TrEMBL record:
SUPFAM superfamilies: Cysteine proteinases. Residues 1-30 form the signal peptide. This is Transglutaminase-like superfamily protein. It comes from Ohtaekwangia koreensis. Residues 288-359 form the Transglutaminase-like domain. Residues 90-225 form the DUF3857 domain. Pfam families: DUF3857, Transglut_core. Keywords: Signal.
């Protein structure tokens, strides 16, 4: 992941407080300002009076210098705002933080008194699973955070490379009185810019020129807070924000292209990989020769190399300056037995090259990023690297070594639908869209035989996971702690009640990527049916997928995201208790919705009741204009889940 993107997202997540010493209000205005925002946002704990970023792009000789001035001013509207006293300012090799100033303006006797922050502590920002990370943050606490007081912050970010301009998101988790983004540069600098997801036209744009200086300014007024919503994608999918980048600039020697088109981005990226793998270690060559000997075809060699990297190289993220962009040589990664996405992608390419097979370094963004190379040819588009193999019949195989449970032929789920930038050679590349895997290839099955014993339902079952359900299940089932594994198995096969008890289970083909994982189990479910007089009532919809999962169309603003599409099949065979007959079977249900559906059939066969169910989810990103259709399907499916079978004594 590009450090710049990661830092930017953390700024958004922690953007809950603060602004500049330059932004002050007069004594007479202060009480009125508090009441104005209190009336406008009565339920909010605090509000950004103003949040702004000013990007300066300055031609210096034959290059560009860029720095960002950030200012934030938060007015606290309630007493319980201590949660906003702590603050972090993030930086990295590419975004060096300087000149931090912070203070609290304490409202006392109808005037503000300043309390400056003096203790800024620099911390490493290394996260779990990160081997090395050059990002960092300054942490500090604002004093006297209380109603009517204001917390203000200003600092500068020096950008090492203008290719990494992050743009600006206008909203955050507090409302804004004013939110603005400004770019100041000269007429010699050609910019590309656009505002995305501003359907309500909340953002005003103004361009001014004064002499050789050009100023671009985007401003939003009285913007509501961004509320967290379940299963939402990255906020850049749906909130107003500016994307901008430098296309070119003029020097005394002529025009210099930066990101004038995708060619510029690709040729820069290619410099990171062009000098790799000039020498191959005996260990790496021997590993490849062994794979070739055991393979009957080129495709099988590719598959075995892919699995070898998944099995033998541990994924560890590594971000340090340009090392966050440049992979290690394949022999180095093979020797160390660890690497990040770039290292693992390059190792796959290197091993296939040794085997005499062409494979290609490929830059790609995960689904955290909404952009496409065909629209925004900048590093904003990607945060990941994989390898690509193109078979003789023209089929593309996207090989993500970091997804160590993913079968050959499947891309990792997080890159479905994304554009891949495939580096063919120094001058040629191809942009190819990674397919979204059809629901029919991601299948869960569950077959059960159950009977009534005393006051409980007991039975045995066999469940299988293939495609992405196997991948995601693999991460949970492939654990050393058996209690964790049992909890996940219970979650997978548990039936409709907190009185479900898993007696025993066995796992088969967990580590075989090319076969479905199988779970055989036995269980008990207490107090699951009712007895009224001579009748028994039992609901055999043991798994009520998405029961009453309605979307509030009036309040929900963000799309809804799913990791993958899938189909789930269930068959339940229940032995009819001796002395009883079937008095009522529910009607069959068929709902073939556009984004989800469910078919349920009931039949009586030779002393058994058989309930067959097919449930499917057919989206990875559900747009707001699809919510109504979702709710229609949920209503019908949820009603069908309420149906019970009635058995009566003979």
């Amino acid at each position: 992941m590009h450090a710049t993107y990661k830092i930017y997202m953390k700024k958004i997540l922690f953007c809950l407080i603060l602004l500049p010493g330059s932004f002050l209000v007069s004594k007479a205005q202060s009480s009125d300002v508090w009441q104005q925002f209190k009336d406008k946002f009565p339920d909010e704990p605090a509000v950004f009076v103003e949040r702004s970023e000013v990007l300066n792009i300055i031609p210096t000789g034959d290059s560009l210098r860029a720095y960002l001035d950030v200012t934030e001013d938060v007015l606290h509207l309630k007493e319980q705002t201590d949660m906003f006293s702590g603050k972090r300012v993030y930086g990295s090799h590419f975004n060096q933080v300087a000149n931090i100033k912070a203070k609290t303006l304490v409202w006392d006797k109808n005037r503000y008194k300043e309390m400056n922050v003096s203790n800024f502590k620099k911390n490493s920002d290394r996260s779990a699973g990160i081997f090395y990370d050059d990002s960092y943050y300054y942490s500090f606490d604002f004093p006297s955070v209380a109603s009517r007081n204001r917390t203000q912050l200003e600092y500068r970010e020096n950008l090492k490379d203008v290719r990494f301009i992050p743009g600006y998101v206008f909203t955050s988790y507090l409302p804004h009185g004013k939110s603005s983004y400004t770019i100041k540069t000269t007429k010699d600098v050609e910019l590309m810019y656009q505002v995305l997801h501003d359907d309500k036209k909340q953002i005003e744009f103004k361009k001014t020129e004064k002499g050789n200086i050009v100023t671009y300014e985007w401003t939003g007024q009285f913007l509501p807070a961004l509320k967290t919503e379940e299963s939402s994608p990255s906020i850049r999918y749906f909130v107003p924000h500016v994307v901008c980048y430098v296309k070119s600039y003029k020097t005394k020697k002529g025009q210099v292209n930066v990101l004038s088109n995708l060619n510029d981005l690709y040729h820069w990226y290619y410099t990171f990989v062009e000098k790799l793998n000039t020498e191959n270690s005996p260990e790496l060559v021997a590993a490849v020769e062994k794979i070739k000997t055991e393979s009957k075809s080129e495709l099988e060699t590719v598959k075995k190399v892919y699995y070898w990297v998944q099995d033998n190289i541990q994924y560890i993220a590594f971000e340090q300056g340009m090392r966050g962009l440049i992979p290690h040589n394949g022999s180095y990664v093979c020797e160390k037995r660890y690497g990040d996405c770039k290292d693992m992608a390059n190792l796959i390419v290197n091993m296939l090259q040794i085997a005499g097979i062409k494979a290609y370094h490929t830059w790609i963004g995960t689904r955290d990023l909404p952009y496409r190379y065909s629209e925004v040819p900048t590093p904003l588009v990607d945060n990941h690297m994989i390898a690509t193999y193109i078979s003789k019949d023209g089929q593309y195989y996207f090989l993500d070594g970091t997804s160590d449970h993913t079968a050959f032929g499947y891309p990792s789920s997080m890159i479905q639908g994304k554009e891949a930038l495939i580096g063919l050679d120094a001058n040629r590349y191809e942009v190819k869209e990674v397919p979204v895997i059809a629901k029919e290839k991601n299948v869960m099955t569950d077959s059960m035989q159950v009977k009534l014993e005393g006051n409980q339902l007991s039975g045995t079952g066999s469940s299988t996971l293939s495609g992405y359900p196997k991948v995601f299940g693999g991460y949970e089932l492939d654990r050393s702690e058996q209690d964790d594994v049992k909890r996940y198995v219970t979650k997978l096969v548990g039936k409709g009640s907190n009185k479900f008890f898993l007696d025993k289970y066995t796992l088969t083909s967990l580590e075989d990527r090319d076969r479905a994982t199988r779970i055989d189990y036995s269980f008990r479910l207490a107090d699951y049916f009712q007895k009224l007089g001579d009748e028994l009532y039992i609901n055999l919809n043991l798994n009520k997928d998405y029961y009453n999962d309605f979307i509030n169309i009036a309040s929900r603003k963000s799309p809804r995201e799913s990791e993958y599409k899938y189909v789930k099949y269930e068959v339940i065979e229940m032995t009819i208790p001796e002395g009883y007959i079937v008095e009522y079977l529910p009607p069959n249900v068929k709902n073939d919705g556009a984004v989800l559906g469910c078919d349920i059939t009931y039949e009586q066969v030779r002393g058994k009741i058989i309930v067959s169910k097919k449930f499917y989810l057919d989206y990875i990103l559900l747009a707001p204009d699809q919510f109504a259709r979702w709710n229609e399907s949920i209503k019908q499916i949820s009603e069908s889940y309420k149906e019970s079978i009635i058995l009566k004594k003979k």
